[in-house]
What we know:
Layout: H1 6-23, E1 25-29, H2 36-45, E2 52-56, E3 58-60, H3 70-77, E4 88-89, H4 98-108, E5 116-119, E6 144-147, E7 157-160, H5 162-166, E8 170-175, H6 181-188, E9 207-212
Parallel strand pairs: 1-2, 1-5, 2-4, 5-8, 8-9
Antiparallel strand pairs: 3-7, 6-7
Helix pairs in contact: 1-2
Amino acid sequence: MRASGTEEAALVVAHELAHAAARGGHIAISGGSSPRRAYELAAEAQPDWSRVEVWFADDRCVPPADERSNYRLAQETLLGRLAVAPAAVHRVEGELAPEAAAQAYDDELRGVVLDLAVLGIGPDGHTASLFPHAPALGETERRAVAVPAGFEPFVDRVTLTLPVLRAARLVLFLVDGAGKAEAAKRAFAAEPSPAVPASLVRSEQGRTLVVMDEAAAQGFDLET
């Protein structure tokens, strides 16, 4: 769907987060600049997250207090603003070696099916830490894998894999800004391709919802 601006797009995502938190289950969230406002609004709309467990679609291999950490972003914008904390917050242990962190997260995810996965998209079409033509795109057995440094900000990462994301009952993309417009076209209006990892992530169990602001939705004929 197309929102009139970034605030309306954030409100739509916050609404989905708040409803998922009220229902309970497992929610995976992402980092980056796009979801920051949505997380703030979700904490206001639903301050009790005691029914859910929170996961991360990906994170950098840095300590949790590092400014590059998605966990730190979530703590500042969402988790730290809640009146009642989630039943559990499963962070990537970025202070470990990448393979050790990925293995620990893979083990922790055993048997988990996400009720909601909140994702973004990069100008290159990546989502989570699944990058164009990366070996991680071919992973079918593991739930989380290490991704070597090679992309901004040039630190190793741990990411959920395609099978985990596709199994989510609701896959929710938040796309904002003119800089994402071309990637959005390739991800959501063209054939799926490993050149555009976001194009490969669609819910196999429920819904896939794409929320774009006007700048990102240039050239789309979308429902408003």
